UniProtKB/TrEMBL annotation:
<dbReference type="Pfam" id="PF01756">
    <property type="entry name" value="ACOX"/>
</dbReference>
<dbReference type="InterPro" id="IPR036250">
    <property type="entry name" value="AcylCo_DH-like_C"/>
</dbReference>
<dbReference type="GO" id="GO:0033540">
    <property type="term" value="P:fatty acid beta-oxidation using acyl-CoA oxidase"/>
</dbReference>
<feature type="domain" description="Acyl-CoA oxidase C-alpha1">
    <location>
        <begin position="286"/>
        <end position="432"/>
    </location>
</feature>
<dbReference type="GO" id="GO:0071949">
    <property type="term" value="F:FAD binding"/>
</dbReference>
<comment type="similarity">
    <text>Belongs to the acyl-CoA oxidase family.</text>
</comment>
<dbReference type="GO" id="GO:0003997">
    <property type="term" value="F:acyl-CoA oxidase activity"/>
</dbReference>
<keyword id="KW-0560">Oxidoreductase</keyword>
<dbReference type="InterPro" id="IPR046373">
    <property type="entry name" value="Acyl-CoA_Oxase/DH_mid-dom_sf"/>
</dbReference>
<feature type="domain" description="Acyl-CoA oxidase C-terminal">
    <location>
        <begin position="459"/>
        <end position="596"/>
    </location>
</feature>
<dbReference type="Pfam" id="PF22924">
    <property type="entry name" value="ACOX_C_alpha1"/>
</dbReference>
<dbReference type="InterPro" id="IPR012258">
    <property type="entry name" value="Acyl-CoA_oxidase"/>
</dbReference>
<dbReference type="InterPro" id="IPR009100">
    <property type="entry name" value="AcylCoA_DH/oxidase_NM_dom_sf"/>
</dbReference>
<keyword id="KW-0276">Fatty acid metabolism</keyword>
<dbReference type="GO" id="GO:0055088">
    <property type="term" value="P:lipid homeostasis"/>
</dbReference>
<dbReference type="InterPro" id="IPR055060">
    <property type="entry name" value="ACOX_C_alpha1"/>
</dbReference>
<dbReference type="InterPro" id="IPR002655">
    <property type="entry name" value="Acyl-CoA_oxidase_C"/>
</dbReference>
């Protein structure tokens, strides 16, 4: 069956058993979200479900030992409830990830990890400070070593150094992984992570100040502010990661520079980029699948053709099949990155950190260039796909019970979560211009099958665009640097070009990941469907960049005009396979719980049941057509 083979491709490096486990868990009534709950109650519900989930997952999740399990947790929590997804990414990817990677040989770190893994405590990760942009490069929270007691004193010097993190619900047993500048004998030793007890059921602990939530409506979570007033920490609260302070108070770090230490301290966000990219790709797929299902089943009363399915309209076909194509390409990109991350996690091998010696805009690309870029592009794609699908569903798309706004919100939040996407692209562009990040060799042999509808030629034009943008950026940077200009004057006029170059580079990496995934597909019908989706994505991107491509003579007016007809033919070919695509790309209604995906009832009946339509006497109302 084509749907089965397509589903296998979409699963990437994850295990079927993990998908079955998460689907079964998140289908249970205890993971329902109450409709009409206050914001505060929603925050508490998110944590209650996080605790329930952690208590029932295999032990490997709490040891960061099974990347397939972690990626699957991210995918299924994202489509079930984006707020729960954010909570799991922080809890597992950042907090447990930091403890596992930076706390080797530290029994206090091990005990904290076990408490988090068992759901006895929940985690908050603290790097961002509110006082300035790009604060990760210049953290001002201090952990000062006291040689007399061999303890640390954690302190927030002013409001600008307050941490922004998930502390708005501050009467839970909550642990913070706090990134602070280590001071030993008045020497700045770089930014390290520290384990800090933040609160209990009675509220914040002495010396810890936690604010009320600062709301982010699209994906509600208890983001707030945290500060520390000379909080004393035991020596083993320090996640030293091989650094040491001897009996005479002398500090030693095997890493050579503060920048290298910062990159190492921020190793855990790699988990969030990989898990988050999988999650973002999943909400893109489910957005497209449920909009496609709705369009197949929903009829239009327009007098041009009464009772005709919405999907008969060419505009609906183009919008939704393009969204489906984008979700497929970005899923392949996320899966490729997740596979590389999985190998690194299993072997505890670090990625290439050749860019760590110099950080310009932010530390993220120095930590892992590809994962950071994948996170950025899948976030933008999820936001765009969910928005398009929401619009294609009319009023139904605006209802939060149908999830589009939450899925769009997850993409929106990931513009900044795990690092600002624009800054990630700028740092990617800098490495491209310097030659550190190699542009793929288009002359290298591949096993890609040719794309239909002249999409092969369009793909070559997109490749040429990438090469020309990167080459032009490198020339301009070199020329301006040769004039003796400082970094700001070199780069400031080039920032739009830098973003375009990095975006083009990432776009072609994503297309290459998709064509490579298709090459392994055995079922001929499934392979043809997926080739049509990639072709549609390539033509869509060519259309979006047509002005630049024509200005560079990479396409002419005739080829541009032909894009419309080619797009129409691809949509017509995909139309008979709509049900297979819905089946392969979607997630079960029992997990999503949106009326728009309900296979057992029509949309109107499912919505009425979800919203608990009742008569005046309080009994469930049954509304018939004839009333």
């Amino acid at each position: 069956m084509p749907a089965d083979e397509i589903r296998r491709v979409l699963a990437g490096p994850t295990d079927d058993a993990h998908h079955r486990l998460l689907a079964a868990l998140l289908s249970e009534p205890r993971f329902d979200r109450p409709i009409g709950a206050t914001v505060a109650d929603r925050h508490r519900s998110t944590y209650a479900r996080l605790v329930e989930l952690t208590a029932r997952l295999p032990a490997e999740a709490g040891e960061l030992a099974d990347p397939s399990l972690l990626a699957t947790i991210a995918e299924w929590t994202a489509v079930s409830d984006p707020s729960l997804c954010i909570a799991t990414l922080i809890h597992y990817g950042l907090c447990i990830g930091s403890l596992v990677e930076l706390g080797k040989g530290n029994d206090h770190a091990r005990q904290t990890r076990v408490a988090l893994a068992q759901g006895r405590k929940v985690g908050a990760f603290m790097i961002t400070e509110i006082g300035g942009g790009n604060s990760q490069l210049a953290a001002r929270t201090e952990a000062r070593f006291d040689p007399g007691s061999r303890a640390f004193v954690l302190h927030t010097p002013d409001d600008g150094a307050l941490k922004f993190t998930n502390v708005g619900v501050n009467d839970l047993d909550k642990i913070g992984i706090v990134c602070a500048r280590l001071i030993v004998a008045d020497r700045d030793c770089g930014v390290f992570a520290f384990v800090v007890e933040l609160s209990t059921s009675r509220g914040p602990l002495p010396g810890v100040a936690l604010s009320a939530p600062a709301e982010i409506p699209l994906v509600p979570f208890d983001y707030g502010l945290a500060g520390f007033d000379h909080v004393r920490l035991p020596f083993d609260a320090w996640l030293a990661d091989g650094a040491s302070i001897d009996a005479e108070g002398r500090f030693h770090d095997p890493l050579g520079t503060p920048d290298e230490r910062l990159v190492r301290t921020l190793t855990a966000p790699e988990n969030v980029w990989a898990m988050g990219a999988v999650a973002l790709a999943a909400v893109s797929r489910t957005s497209a699948a449920q909009a496609l299902r709705y369009s197949v089943r929903r009829s239009s009363m327009a007098r041009v053709a009464p009772e005709v399915s919405l999907l008969r309209y060419s505009t609906q076909q183009r919008g939704l099949f393009r969204a489906l194509a984008t979700s497929f390409v970005m899923t392949c990109f996320a899966n490729e990155a997740a596979r590389e991350w999985s190998d690194a996690v299993r072997h505890r091998a670090g990625p290439d950190r050749t860019a760590a010696t110099f950080m310009m805009w932010a530390p993220w690309s120095s930590t892992n260039r590809k994962l950071a870029l994948v996170k950025a592009l899948t976030a933008w794609a999820a936001e765009a796909v969910a928005a398009e699908c929401r619009l294609r569903c009319g009023v139904a798309g605006d209802l939060t019970v149908n999830r589009y706004l939450e899925y769009q919100g997850l993409g929106h939040v990931f513009n900044d979560a795990g690092g600002n996407n624009f800054l990630i692209l700028l740092d990617t562009a800098r490495t491209l211009a310097s030659g550190v990040a190699a542009v793929p060799d288009d002359d290298a042999p591949t096993h890609d099958a040719p794309l239909p509808e002249a999409a092969g030629a369009a793909r070559e034009a997109l490749r040429a665009r990438e090469h020309r943008l990167v080459a032009a950026l490198a020339r301009d940077v070199a020329a301006r640097s040769a004039q003796g200009l400082d970094s700001l004057d070199v780069w400031n006029p080039l920032l739009p070009a830098a973003r375009d170059a990095a975006d083009a580079y990432g776009l072609n990496l994503a297309i290459r990941a998709a064509t490579s995934a298709i090459a392994a597909v055995q079922d001929e019908r499934a392979r043809a469907i997926l080739q049509d989706l990639v072709a549609l994505f390539v033509l869509d991107q060519t259309d979006r960049h047509a002005a630049w491509l024509m200005s560079e003579a990479l396409i002419d007016a005739g080829r541009y005009r032909a894009l419309d007809g080619a797009t129409a033919r691809l949509c017509e070919r995909l139309l008979p396979d709509a049900d297979a695509l819905i089946d392969a790309f979607g997630h079960p209604h029992a997990v999503i719980r949106s009326p728009i995906t309900d296979p057992a009832q029509d949309y109107a009946a499912s919505l009425a049941r979800t919203l608990k339509l009742r008569a005046r006497d309080g009994r469930p109302e049954s509304v018939s057509v004839g009333r």
